[in-house]
Design brief:
Number of helices: 7
Radius of gyration: 25 Å
Distance between the termini: 119 Å
CATH architecture of one domain: Sandwich
Strand order of the largest sheet: 2-8-7-4-5
Strand content: 15-25%
CATH class of one domain: Mainly Beta
Largest sheet: 5 strands, mixed
Helix content: 25-40%
Number of strands: 9
CATH topology of one domain: Immunoglobulin-like
Length: 301
């Protein structure tokens, strides 16, 4: 027994030098990070030809506040960084999703509420609308359209807005940014999704690179954002994320801001759909009135 005890006392320090429970998870995590980024050092977005800004809508400023300044009127000084859409410089982003995800940098503000809306191309009615409390800290807000909302139609342009509600009564005081989105056909030959859980993070990077190569902006950013959130301390992923955004003209300081979960699925879907339906009926009624007036003028002649 004494010999056995001596053997154990000699063997245990050697064993501890190989396996240290406190260090094992960190080493495993480091190995996974290395596997993720060992051959993908950057992602460059390739804008598809002919996908620029569709041009001005017939809105005439109903959202208000776009381009009127960085801060709300009641605030003494502008924020260091302005409210910014995470979009290519064309302000147009393609998606393959019926219910896509959007990203907007929102600075610190005294305003309490925000609004997000997706409108038809001519801004005659909202396809989706929600309002929500703004985050208390500045950051990149991530908004995902809920599955209960109406799906975006294939091949159709939409205009979307993010609004900081400076004054709920005076709409002219609000601040907003807007961009365009178009749903396109799903891509063929996606990277292999039949993989083990240990490679799931690698897949997100592959998907992001694949969508970037084919000019699909929203899925490029959404997949990379998921990876950035799950690997917040990985400097290589941070570099890839920042490089992607800077490649489409986003300020480096904005690219480095944290991603904030916000505003997802807080809207009452039935209320939203009722509002959209009401707006569509109003537009239809207005068109019928115009048609009726034209017929009256024609009959008088």
């Amino acid at each position: 027994m004494a010999l056995l005890g001596a053997s154990l006392s000699v063997g245990l320090p050697w064993l501890a030098s190989i396996w240290t429970p406190d260090l094992a998870p960190a080493r495993a995590e480091e190995a996974i990070r290395s596997e993720i980024t060992d051959d993908i050092l950057e992602i460059r977005f390739q804008s598809p030809p002919g996908q620029g800004d569709p041009g001005p809508s017939s809105d005439g400023g109903t959202r208000t506040g776009e381009g009127l300044g960085r801060q709300c009127p009641q605030e003494d000084s502008p924020p260091e960084l302005p409210m910014t859409m995470l979009l290519p410089e064309t302000k147009m982003g393609l998606t393959v999703s019926e219910h896509p995800t959007f990203f907007v940098y929102v600075p610190a503000t005294q305003a309490k509420m925000g609004e997000f809306a997706i409108a038809d191309e001519h801004d005659l009615y909202d396809v989706y609308y929600t309002s929500f409390p703004l985050p208390k800290e500045p950051g990149i807000v991530r908004l995902t359209v809920p599955e209960t909302a109406d799906a975006l139609e294939l091949g159709k342009n939409y205009k979307w807005y993010f609004v900081i509600v400076c004054d709920p009564i005076d709409r002219m005081a609000n601040r907003s940014v807007s961009g365009f989105i178009k749903r396109t056909e799903p891509l063929a030959n996606l990277p292999n999704t039949n993989i083990s859980d240990s490679s799931a993070k690698r897949l997100l990077l592959e998907l992001s690179r694949f969508y970037a190569k084919h000019g699909i902006w929203h899925e490029t950013l959404t997949n990379l954002a998921e990876l950035r959130l799950s690997q917040a301390q990985d400097p290589m992923l941070e570099k890839i994320w920042s490089g992607l955004l800077q490649s489409v003209g986003v300020d480096a300081k904005i690219a480095s801001q944290p991603i904030i979960e916000c505003c997802s699925d807080r809207e009452d879907a039935n209320s939203s759909k009722s509002q959209v339906k009401s707006q569509k009926l109003q537009v239809k009624s207005q068109k019928l009135q115009v048609k009726s007036q034209k017929l009256q003028v024609k009959s008088q002649r």
